[in-house]
Amino acid sequence: MPNQPNQINQLRERFISELRATFSDQEPRGLYAPIDYILDLGGKRIRPVVALLAAQMFGDEDLKQSMPVALAVEVFHNFTLLHDDIMDDSPLRRGQQTVHEKWDINTGILSGDLMLIQAYQHLCEVSNKTALPALLCTFNRVATGVCEGQQYDVDFESRDDVTIAEYLMMIELKTAVLLGGALEMGALSAGASQADADHLYAFGRLTGLAFQLQDDLLDTFGDSASTGKLQGNDIIRNKKTFLFLKAMELLDEGGREELNRLFSESPEDPTPKVARVTEMMISVGIPEEVARLRDEFQAKAYAHLDAAGGSTEVKKVLRALAESLLQRIS
Prior knowledge:
Blueprint: H1 4-20, H2 29-39, H3 46-57, H4 67-88, E1 92-93, E2 96-97, H5 99-102, H6 105-123, H7 132-156, H8 164-189, H9 194-221, H10 224-227, H11 233-236, H12 242-250, H13 253-262, H14 271-283, H15 286-307, H16 312-326
Antiparallel strand pairs: 1-2
């Protein structure tokens, strides 16, 4: 077996080749060109790669059984990004114009709708037809969860009483369940038992939660040169992540009032605001609190990975991939 980074890169390149083979000059171009455009913008392709790895765990070495699952997962993921960009009125996606900016909103809605249909079409192309009912049930459950998570995210923007439990539920639905679903469906396509697939789903879901907490942490405390993100961007945008909610729980009454006030302001120069919020969070141990919960989720994730059957060598690759996601330079 190739070393772990090489195997991941090879799977990613194999998947990208298969994805691009789905592009065509199909008419009407106003419908299909935006789909090819967003699918070709790049990204880490983590979800399809873990679907393929999960299938390899249970013997699908040539990936013929699992490639349709990987395509379905990636097309669905990009469908959600396309519609999220419209909802957020985002001008850029991965450094390029978003679909609704390059074309228009109506095109973005319709092309996104077709992407959801295409995801089902890919899923129906799995060669292991006996697994198809379970695959469809899993896909429907995960897709519903993603939409619910997006709605909670929208709802929470106008609420001042969001709890930590509610925030964790939201990021689980919006981000983590699709990672878990990709692993579950990859395993099922290769003939894994539902019990083993459930363990891989839990591994992905918990890893997704840990990753989102790490992402929130790095947004505030990471080095921009290493993360590629503007430090303190969540603070600048008054985004109430786990860091804000935990700080509100741990600060005294005066601190809570100050933090609330700071998160109601949008100064032209946000530097003093970011510095003060960061100082307040450090004073009550927020970086340590986030790291503790992140590590708790990941330890549970690895326990589920260890409990699953299948190839121990592929498990090592999945563990290495999880580590690479979680241990970005802070």
